[in-house]
């Protein structure tokens, strides 16, 4: 069984950045597991919208039909206060029991600090002694800003884009309007730009990192 593990910095990144890839991999017969790492958890156990955030995550999961790894979320926005090992331990546990053949995560060149921090942890987690069955790693291209150039594309059909947009819309607190890259209009425009780069009407973009031989 070919398996894809998506290590999502926040609950919404899996839909925004990987909604098309999830659909394609499931259609290809892959098993897809999403692991979210950071959430709205703050000092003294106080939470700001974390219950609502998780409800949105479950709604997006029902739309895209991926599996989710349930674990307490770490504090978002202050990755230095979390450190490496707290994240690394969780990622290594999932790598051990899920045994993916493909790992998807954020780019080290993303302009979001949580994304960059998690990308560094994934580098450590996927060092040769831990690679196991992993043969391919993809860095997703963050919509809110990155200096990473895409080298791998997932072509999207119109129904795939609409399903992805429905999953993104589940995160009602994260959607934006106007000129924001998270607006529905600009999400479509970005898919058209990536599509133009790979000869398709619409696409999702990634940076490909081969760890071993290519997956069959």
Topology:
Blueprint: E1 3-10, H1 13-27, E2 31-39, H2 50-64, E3 67-69, E4 74-75, H3 79-82, H4 84-98, E5 102-106, H5 113-125, E6 136-140, E7 152-155, H6 158-169, H7 184-198, E8 203-210
Parallel strand pairs: 1-2, 1-5, 2-3, 2-4, 5-6
Antiparallel strand pairs: 6-8, 7-8
Structural write-up:
- The chain is of the alpha/beta class and 216 residues long.
- It has a single domain, classed as LmbE-like (Rossmann fold, 3-Layer(aba) Sandwich), CATH 3.40.50.
- The protein is 41% helix and 20% strand.
- It has helices at 13-27, 50-64, 79-82, 84-98, 113-125, 158-169, 184-198; strands spanning 3-10, 31-39, 67-69, 74-75, 102-106, 136-140, 152-155, 203-210.
- Strands 1, 2, 3, 4, 5, 6, 7 and 8 form an 8-stranded mixed beta sheet that branches.
- Helix 4 (84-98) crosses helix 5.
- It is globular, with a radius of gyration of 16 Å.
- The N and C termini lie close together (11 Å).
- Residues 42-47 have low confidence and may be disordered.
